[in-house]
Amino acid sequence: MAASWLLPMLWAISTSFKTEAQAQSTPLQWIPDGGFTLENYATVFSRGEVMRWMGNTLLIAGAVTILTVALCALAGYGFSRTRFRGRRLLFAGTIALIAIPGQILIVPLFRQMQAINAVDTYWGVILPQLVAPVMVYIFAKFFSEIPQELEDAARVDGAGHWRTFWSIVLPISRPIVSAVGIFVFIGAWNNFLWPFIVTNNPDLMTLPVGLSTVKNAYGTIYAQTMASAMIAAAPLIILFMLFQRQIVKAVATTGLGGR
Q1: What's the pLDDT tens digit per position in 52-87?
Q2: Which end of the chain is more exposed for a tag (fewer CB within 10 A), N or C?
């Protein structure tokens, strides 16, 4: 079943190395008679804007990942390890936000970006993506499983909440931090709707938005479309291959107090 799941990916890779005539010829062939070609990739990169779009996507996805992980980890620690008035109500509200589709927030978010003059800016793309209630919940549940004795020992030595979080909790939470970071990065990299709405300047477009405009301008060119899709997917595939152990470890240690 795993091998069958890879068939569409293998077909997309094969098509990306074909000429347009080979991609549309019948019967379909995995390996075309004339052999493979790099023409589609050369054409895509020759447009010039693709590399800028990829740089924009990397900048935005990286900033969203770092800021989201930092904010959600701090919020999750606050909910799981501190007691303050209204904590239960705020946490219940955070859980409730998970059920709200992001699409219904597009109009108020766009009005907010207009109010702070952030439309057609990097910050206009980044800021609305920093709110991730599900990640706050994941961090809160993970932190709540960490043995309380570790923090008690730190407080005996005079450590406050910040020092305990930074020196004790965060180091033993690296698996969940890595997993959340990877998931957030993938979501930000693939995000199409919000960057499409908030940016009009081609120099600020992300890779998914930019590639969609190329396809719309030139019609459906299957071989080049597949080449563009492979270019957009390659960084995510490499990222997952490099950090798949951290993802598995995060899932395996959930509920075991970070051990």
Answers
A1: 888 899 999 999 999 999 999 999 998 988 888 888
A2: N
pTM as predicted: 0.80
* pLDDT (tens digit per residue) in 86-98: 888 998 988 888 8
pLDDT class for 247, splitting at 50, 70, 90? low
* Domain boundaries of the chain, sorted by first residue: 49-254
Taking the CA atoms of residue 126, residue 130, residue 134 and residue 137 in that order, the dihedral angle to the nearest 10 degrees is 160
How many Å separate Cα 137 from the centre of its chain? 17
Distances, alpha carbon 51 to alpha carbons 57, 94, 173, 237, in Å: 10, 38, 35, 18
With both helix axes pointing from N to C terminus, report the angle between 174-190 and 49-81 in degrees, rounded to the nearest 10. 140
Cβ atoms 145, 79 nearer than 8 A:
no
pLDDT digits 0-9 by tens, 46-56: 776 778 888 89
146-168 residue pLDDT tens = 888 877 787 777 777 788 888 88
Compute the distance between CA of residue 178 and CA of residue 246 in angstroms, rounded to an integer: 6
Q: Give DSSP secondary structure letters for 53-103.
A: HHHHHHHHHHHHHHHHHHHHHHHHHHHHH---TTHHHHHHHHHHHHTS-GG
Strands (E), 166-205: none
Angle between helix 222-253 and helix 49-81 axes, rounded to 10 deg: 20
Q: In this structure, which CATH number among 1.10.3720.10, 2.30.30.240, 3.40.50.150, 3.40.50.1370 belongs to the domain 49-254? A: 1.10.3720.10
Asked if 180 contacts 69 with a C-beta cutoff of 8 angstroms, the reply is yes
Cα–Cα distance for residue pair 158/154, rounded to 1 Å: 7
